[in-house]
């Protein structure tokens, strides 16, 4: 486990979520608020328990006497042996089984060179090896299997469709797999599906596909085994595999050697988001809050005010803003001048229906010492259609504070790609799980284009440093930030699924102390309200690919941690789960919204 003062994570070697053929340079970084950064190197153990990063060479000389083995061609229907249990559920063949012939009857010496180090694991071996598949095993014929067990496509509302697609090499009998679910109470794994069924084996150089509906809010584990410990790519055919969840690719080996004896992928399936049909009212969608009580093209703004002991000093006003010039236009829509609140500690709630557009709310204290907390616990809270967008309980210095508000943001302003929706979903189901786990009200993040624009600009700037180790935060910003980077050839340079990226920020650090878990705390920081993510890609001169991922948060997390002695035990959970925090601006650069 990294030291408590470390925040720059370089990953080298094996990793079940990111197996790759050549090398990995994956860096992730989260900004504490404030905190001094240190660098450190982190190495993972391989499946066999050897540390990556150390180069080890082992040679295996085997005298193998190969037999004449010939697989007789047979029809698909007659060569299958079906199992009506959970094994190999819903699998079909794509393309037909291919006949394999192995007629080597010579004595040969086989040398196998295994290298483990910074460039991953490479396996070289001769052009042929002994074919020792048992003739007592029948071949899995997914054509007939598919007819008897149709692929299940319509999942329940609390499920997501998992699809598994793999192709065997010329030694299909060496391949097996299993899918397991983790029990939430005991932590034990139990098998949901596996293949091939008992007394069966897979055809050589044949593609298989299958699917299963998986219940949301659960961890799953996919394990792929190779009997001969040489994987199924690339010396004896282009074996490959991939899997998707909810139609989104989670992993694709892309005909690369990504494992030898075993590949393990752990993944979480979140609860599905309810679809929004085009042309229908999406006011109840998970991205837009509740329906407005004000009618079409309007939203209800509720202003909740509580003064301190000197209420007569407190004033506020709500004004319309020209979005092009960002200047106030016209007279105030609502306001409270000096001496309106003649009594101390006065509370007032004002409701107004606002047409879509941009507005500015300004709170003023006549003396210049704010409304909290020296002379009472004054505050101002603003809600759009019952969604809290602004809290001003930390207005404790200065004469005034102003916040821009965008009404109708979801309908008129928000533009989200599918990948951006995945970032939002990946954060929010984790936030809900964590907040409720500690009996706190769940606070979802709202996606914001202006944060996404800032994140994208910094991601593009970081491409300049793709050739060097490490990744840096943008200096002098007041937003929260999580960063990640992956570089390399083949699979290392692929576009990783959003779930994998956010999982590295969250699940990977959930048992770590603060500040080592700074990605985790930022992503789930309860008083943060807004999220925007950006990515950038560069084709490198060495033929590899560099990818940068940046997420920005408002308000910033990892705030005021020293006041709670957060590096001791679980003290970091106290500020992380609070309703409000004083770090960074309340609103994103483009304004607050629901």
TrEMBL record:
Record field: compositional bias (Basic and acidic residues): 81-90
Source organism, top-level taxon: Eukaryota
Pfam families: CAP
Gene3D superfamilies: CAP
Domain SCP: 418-561
Stored InterPro entries: CAP_dom (IPR014044), CAP_sf (IPR035940), CRISP-related (IPR001283)
Annotated region (Disordered), positions in chain: 70-104
Listed name of the protein: SCP domain-containing protein
Organism: Thalassiosira oceanica (Marine diatom)
């Amino acid at each position: 486990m990294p030291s408590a003062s470390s925040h720059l994570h370089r990953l080298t070697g094996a990793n079940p979520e990111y197996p790759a053929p050549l090398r990995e340079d994956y860096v992730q970084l989260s900004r504490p608020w404030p905190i001094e950064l240190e660098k450190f190197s982190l190495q993972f153990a391989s499946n066999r328990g050897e540390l990556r990063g150390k180069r080890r060479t082992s040679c295996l000389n085997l005298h193998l006497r190969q037999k004449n083995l010939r697989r007789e061609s047979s029809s698909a229907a007659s060569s299958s042996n079906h199992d009506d249990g959970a094994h190999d559920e819903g699998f079909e063949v794509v393309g037909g089984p291919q006949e394999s012939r192995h007629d080597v009857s010579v004595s040969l010496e086989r040398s196998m060179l295994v290298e483990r180090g910074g460039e991953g694991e490479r396996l070289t071996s001769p052009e042929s090896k002994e074919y020792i598949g048992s003739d007592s095993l029948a071949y899995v014929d997914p054509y007939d299997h598919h007819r008897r067990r149709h692929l299940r496509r319509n999942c329940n509302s609390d499920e997501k469709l998992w699809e598994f697609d793999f192709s065997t090499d010329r030694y299909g009998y060496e391949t097996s797999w299993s899918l397991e679910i983790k029990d939430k109470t005991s932590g034990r794994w139990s098998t949901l599906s596996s293949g091939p069924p008992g007394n069966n084996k897979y055809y050589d150089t044949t593609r298989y596909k299958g699917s299963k509906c998986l219940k949301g809010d659960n961890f799953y584990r996919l394990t792929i085994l190779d009997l001969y410990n040489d994987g199924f790519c690339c010396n004896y055919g282009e074996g490959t595999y991939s899997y998707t969840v909810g139609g989104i690719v989670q992993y694709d080996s892309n005909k690369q050697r990504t494992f030898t004896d075993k590949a393990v992928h752990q993944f979480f399936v979140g609860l599905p988001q309810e679809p929004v049909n085009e042309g229908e009212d999406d006011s109840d969608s998970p991205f837009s809050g509740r329906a407005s009580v004000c009618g079409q093209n309007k939203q209800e703004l509720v202003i909740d005010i509580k003064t301190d002991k000197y209420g007569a000093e407190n004033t506020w006003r709500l004004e319309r803003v020209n979005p092009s010039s960002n200047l106030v236009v016209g007279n105030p829509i609502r306001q409270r001048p000096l001496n309106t609140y003649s009594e101390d500690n006065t509370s007032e709630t004002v409701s107004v229906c606002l047409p879509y557009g941009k507005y500015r709310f300004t709170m003023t204290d006549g003396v210049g010492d704010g409304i909290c907390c020296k002379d009472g616990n004054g505050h101002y809270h603003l809600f759009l259609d019952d969604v809290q967008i602004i809290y001003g309980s930390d207005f404790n210095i200065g004469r005034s504070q102003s916040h821009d508000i965008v009404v109708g943001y979801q309908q008129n302003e928000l533009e989200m790609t599918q990948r951006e929706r995945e970032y939002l979903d990946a954060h929010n189901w984790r936030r809900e799980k964590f907040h409720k786990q500690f009996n706190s009200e769940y606070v979802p993040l709202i996606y914001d284009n202006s944060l996404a624009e800032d994140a994208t600009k910094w991601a593009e700037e970081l491409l300049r440093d793709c050739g060097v180790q490490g990744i840096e935060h943008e200096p002098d910003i007041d937003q929260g930030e999580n960063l990640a980077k992956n570089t390399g050839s083949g699979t290392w340079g692929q576009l990783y699924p959003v779930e994998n990226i956010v999982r590295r920020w969250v699940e990977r650090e959930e048992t770590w102390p603060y500040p080592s878990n700074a990605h985790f705390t930022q992503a789930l920081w309860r008083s943060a309200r807004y999220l925007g993510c950006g990515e950038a890609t560069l084709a490198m001169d060495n033929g590899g690919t560099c990818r940068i991922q940046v997420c920005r948060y408002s308000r910033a997390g990892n705030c005021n941690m020293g006041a709670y002695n957060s590096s001791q035990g679980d003290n970091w959970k106290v500020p992380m789960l609070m309703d409000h925090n004083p770090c960074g601006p309340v609103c994103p650069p483009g304004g607050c919204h629901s």
